[in-house]
Amino acid sequence: MRKIQLLSLVSALTWSWVAASGNIPVKMEEFHSLSPDLVRIMKERNLSEQDLWSNQEFSSREWKLPHRPLEEFDRGVRQGFWRDMHRHPTLAQTGLALDWSGCRAIRVTLESAAKSNNIITLGFRADNLAAKGRSYYCFEIPLDFTGKKSVEFDLAAARPINRPAGWNRLSGIYLFAKAGGHHPAPCAAMRLLEIEPLPGKAAAPAAVTPELFQIRLPDRPSPNLNHSWPEDSADGPVVTRDRFISYGHHNRTERDLYAYYPRYNPGYVSFSPSGRAYITAGELIQFLDDDGRWQAVSLRPHLEAWAKQQGYAGLYYNWGAQGGDPVIRFDRAGNAYCLAQVEALNRQGKRYDWRTRTALLLFSPDHFRTFKVYQLPHPIASFEKIDGNNPAALERPPVILLSSYGYFDAAYRGLQLLLPERTADGLKLGEPVEVAETAIGCNYHSGDGNIVLSSPDKLFVIWGWLLEYWPNSRRCRGILEELKALHPGETGLSRLWTVDNLAKTRHGRSLPASFPGPEAPARNLRFDVQYHHLFHSRFLPVSSRNGVPTFLTVYDRKTGRKSAPVYLGSAGSALDGHNWGAISFDPQGRLEVIVNGHHNPPLYTRSKRPYSAEAFEPVRFLQPEQGQERCSYGSLNCGTDGTLYSFHRSTTGLYNNRLVMFRKKPGKEWESARTIVAPSKMLYHSWMHKVAINPHNNALYLTYFAVPPQSFWPPDYFETMRFHYPELEETIPYSASAGQLEMKPVRHWESWEAGGMVQLRGGEPVILVSRDGGDTWRLARTGDFR
Known about the structure:
The longest helix has 13 residues, at 474-486. The protein is 7% helix and 34% strand. The chain is mostly beta strands. Strands 14, 39, 42, 43, 44, 45 and 46 form a 7-stranded mixed sheet that branches. Strands 13, 19, 20, 21, 22 and 23 form a 6-stranded mixed sheet that branches. The chain has a 5-stranded mixed sheet with strand order 2-1-12-6-9, with no helix packed on it. The chain is globular and about 80 Å long.
């Protein structure tokens, strides 16, 4: 058989050969860090760099087009080595014609310039016309050595992606640094020296072993916890008053722009009563020991043990999104509490019944050495989180909020409180307390500020009354028939399904008596909404009249009684399950309130007296001139100095879903929105952002996902992403026709005509820290958690 040697010589973009004997030279310089398919399609369709969404960059509130020559992105190979893998995460050589069907194995010889512990994926492309997308055979190679090394792989042991056609149909050799959830160290550098097919009869392909413990976060735990390399290349703050993070061309995010490679696994931040920092990332809880080194504890053994007790074949851990709050809570005594939402897997590693979704409370009295696992009554659970001014939350086990998936007919649609009590050997959960029988639930995917706050003897809960229409729901169809009977001759859904009409149905009895009539000022705040059409946007005037009615309920711990709900305002302009609120105490105990819409201006109010819901200031926009802000998923935190912070996803002026911060200093008005980070593309992008504040020093920690779990990808952007993440071949955009995924000149940058929505597990979390009250933000390094 022929041996393939990879030499350091310059050659053309694509290269192919026919069957030959002896050694066939394949040069490292023939590997390219820009998708060869992208280049080919551009040539075939006469597209320029300016036609590519992935070659744009958002640099101001105006959409600029500083496109760059494609050659700038094809520099992954230098001096014969694959370098800067964080910036050039894939190399490819295509145009080959290899038949290794007569081989049993391959021997790969490579050279690593540094012991980086990177795990790279060597992929052989073998497209299957019967499969949708591209197909690969893959082998993982750890770069845990320096110098030269040979590794032998049985062909039968290859990991297939998307049903590859066979070893006789190889058309390309790929090197992936980000496949399978791995992330490259910036110091890594390697080169292939030789690939030698070994003749013989290949064994039958190994049966694909299903993954029976799955985590929504695809990022693999870092093999370099506590590494000695720089954690990033940023020279000072990455966000200032004059500068924000702008994702670069071809999906360059923090790991690419700043060589972001922290000594920990990025995730969500929590603090103990003493101010000690903890980071959750998937199954891991991480913290610094007394020597300043990261330690990691895994929840996996405890979750798997619980699943085994239930008789489940496997378990899906829905970390970091709507399900189980990803923060850690402590009480004053140092007991630790974690939440996890899990779901059963069958023996094929597939989820099969939403009714197996379960929220678990994990309790540890000994700093994570042991855990007791408690099953909660509903599948979605969230904590009261420690903020700047709610120390009463530390005096008992944390308050837990409970809800379910209201779009299923059989699911619970309200909001409940659970108030665990400490016992000699663990916890007593007690019975849930219903806050509202018809409400937006808890544990929001983005923003997720507090919706419950503890004072010494009371709990304050903000909630939104919601009857949302789901077309496939028998219950909703029944409500719609009742509405039609009450309003003969009216058939339009938008005119029938309104708050005031629903209030007259039998389901409207759950609407509190404090909800005012349609002429109330709080229900007539006027703004506009933006509707996106194929080649233009329309702005239509609306009001808060049909927004989500938002209330505050007080629960007295001593008497066990609830107050009558107090109406605060109406969120957004429609009955939308994204219109959730958030509350925080100021240092004097007054309630600070954000009422969120969905692509609507956020509203603000505050209580007139400390620890009281009897009277609130009139609800208003954050600033009068900000009535046209289009924001979603607002958080809310208050420092011990009284400064308010609220982070939102914004589409104001331009639909590119950047992440912004509003700030209000004590005695001042709300400041205008400041952009923190902006994607390099238009249309849908969710950040999964959450904010933690350390009450000991008011330091702010903002976590968000650089690769969101759901996003709109234009065709060339998808081409770039599938080049970086080969597993995407099995999750082609789910809401796009074949025509929408064809690359073509862009006629309108805010158009949905080309591309589709992609559903992923999300990944590449980022942590920013601010120690000056939000003026500047840095990538969080290990020293920021001491």
